[in-house]
Amino acid sequence: RVIYQNNTLTGLLSTSRSTSGELVMCQEKLVQEVVDILLDNGIRGQPMRDGHNKVYKSFSYVIEGKE
């Protein structure tokens, strides 16, 4: 999702002459949201799940307890 959202934002920025500022800001927020989910899934309420209803593991979960 992060790569998809980032590619969408990059595409919007490359055609910035015809893209409204509000649309770009909205897309930037979506990119930030998916990055936040990647770093700490569940911080914004219910954790994200895949197509098989399995909860995604966040980076903070994976490195938890490691020094």
Please outline the helices and strands.
Elements: H1 2-14, H2 21-39, H3 59-62
Helix pairs in contact: 1-2
Structure description:
Helices cover 54% and strands 0% of the residues. The chain is mainly alpha-helical and 67 residues long. It has one domain (2-62). It starts with a helix and ends in a 5-residue tail after the last helix.
Q: Based on DSSP secondary structure assignment, what is the total number of beta strands? A: 0
Cα Rg: 15 Å
Q: By helix and strand content, what is the structural category? A: mainly alpha
β-strand amount:
under 5%
| Helicity, as a percent range | 40-55%
Mean pLDDT score: 74
Main sheet, how many strands, which sense, barrel?
none
H/E topology pattern: HHH
What is the end-to-end distance?
28 Å
Number of domains: 1
List keywords for this structure.
single chain, 67 residues, mainly alpha
Summed up, what is this model?
By secondary structure, the chain is an all-alpha fold. It has helices spanning 2-14, 21-39, 59-62.
